[in-house]
Specification:
Length: 444
């Protein structure tokens, strides 16, 4: 626990230093692509944090001045499987983005999916010595949250206070400066497989870069794809990537749950490749050009040239109907959505006042997916594109860039996390678990 607490604190300091210099890179390390965006922070906004005004103060203005993507190598299920291949891919993306921006960056903020995330809702209480809530009181109440036993090799990726209550008033975003006697706090803690994070840290170091922050892809996709009302009233973001599908639930502008399904668009491609006995690259082309999940009578007649270079003329001239292709794709897409549904059910998503679900990520682009998703996940489903960010090239505005864009927003205004406060070192015994939803039910 303390190891990562210290390194997260160190990253926060590095992020501040990078912001003062005015340039930072964000890196989305995915299974199918690695995306790098370079941000420039300008003007007085840059210094605002140093003045001691909280990170949520005002929209700090930044623009994207460099962007590049490269095919990801060595990453499986959102986790690094082959170190030197991933290192090469990251270097390629970062160098290309630096070239476009015409600057050199030393600091990156990275996000990744996978790593078997687990969510915990924690609660803590603290009697105030003085009636006005100070920074120290917030640190005290955070340290009073019972941290469960996360299990061997697990580390904390996010630990965010999601609600404060002062005496009988609940739903406070920031209690500092308010008057009362007893301060209580609800915190959302997300733990991940430690080795996955360590591999990513090590890989970024090998690329001669300093890590100035780290986030879960599911979290940052939610930040960029859910509109403000959805984040406030309760919504889920399902980010369908290449190797994994991230799920996050937001409420009152905070993430209160995250999970991931170890399946994504690559699994659909691999099904096509196995089912039709064609190379993965050909299967990927056919999927993006002709894929879908609903067949009409027209599709029986639409023939798809498989194309091949095996030298066997008969085999290379094969054709299949679009109906057959859909027949291969649909079961896997249904399986991914059903897995996502069961994670939402386990989280208690149906207790929220609004059950909006937003689908994003590269694999959400399959034609007809929204209709199928509405059937499996419930009626309120929409396809989401990330927010518009200044300077973002047109090619990087689609759903496949939800986490990269979310990472820009996370870099510009990170939410308060546990390590932003001077937490007293004593640890508390584990007690509470899965309480994240309790206060939402109480507060509505």
């Amino acid at each position: 626990m303390t190891g990562l607490y210290q390194s997260q604190r160190a990253m926060r300091h590095m992020r501040r230093a990078a912001m003062q210099r005015g340039v930072v890179a964000v890196l989305d390390v995915g299974t199918s692509k690695i995306a790098c965006l370079i941000l420039r922070f300008d003007g007085p906004e840059r210094l605002r944090e140093v003045d001691g005004v909280g990170p949520m103060a005002g929209q700090s203005s930044f623009r994207v001045i460099g962007a590049a993507t490269t095919r990801s190598r060595g990453v499986k299920f959102g986790e690094i499987a082959v170190m030197n291949e991933t290192e090469r891919a990251i270097r390629t993306a970062v160098q290309a983005a630096q070239k476009m921006a015409n600057v050199r960056v030393d600091h990156v903020i990275a996000c990744f999916s996978g790593a078997e995330p687990r969510s915990y809702g924690l609660a803590g209480e603290w009697d105030l010595q003085d009636s006005v809530v100070t920074e120290q009181d917030v640190a005290r109440v955070l340290s009073a949250c019972d941290v469960p036993d996360l299990g061997p090799g697990r580390e904390v990726l996010h630990a965010q206070p999601v609600n404060f209550a002062l005496d009988h008033r609940t739903g406070l975003g920031d209690p500092r400066g308010q008057i009362g006697n007893r301060l209580a706090c609800d915190m959302h803690l997300l733990s991940v497989e430690g080795s996955v994070v360590q591999n990513l840290l090590y890989c970024i170091k090998r690329c001669d870069l300093e890590l100035a922050g780290i986030a879960s892809s599911a979290y940052v996709s939610g930040i960029s794809s859910l509109v403000e009302d959805e984040q406030e009233l309760g919504a889920a973001c399902i980010d369908m990537g290449g190797g994994s599908t991230g799920i996050s639930i937001f409420m009152k502008k905070h993430m209160i749950y995250a999970d991931s399904v170890r399946m994504g668009g690559d699994h659909v491609t691999s099904d096509i490749s196995k089912g039709l006995h064609i190379p993965t690259a050909v299967a990927e082309k056919i999927k993006t050009k002709h894929g879908g999940v609903y067949a009409t009578s027209m599709d029986d007649r639409e023939m798809i040239e498989m194309g091949g270079e095996s030298g066997d003329w008969e085999k290379d001239r094969r054709q299949i109907s679009r109906t057959e292709l859909i027949g291969i794709m649909r079961p896997r897409v249904e399986e991914i959505l059903e897995e996502a549904r069961s994670r939402l059910d386990a989280a208690g998503f149906d207790h929220l006042p609004s059950q909006q679900i937003v689908l994003t990520g590269g694999a959400s682009q399959i034609p007809g997916l929204d209709g199928l998703a509405a059937r499996i996940l419930g009626q309120q489903v929409r396809l989401g594109r990330p927010l518009r960010v200044q300077g973002l090239p047109q090619a990087a505005t689609g759903a496949a860039f939800a986490s990269a864009v979310g990472l820009c927003l996370f870099a510009a205004h990170p939410q308060d996390e546990w390590w932003d406060f001077e937490i007293p070192s004593e640890r508390y015994p584990a007690r509470s678990l899965k309480r994240a939803f309790k206060w939402f039910k109480d507060n509505w």
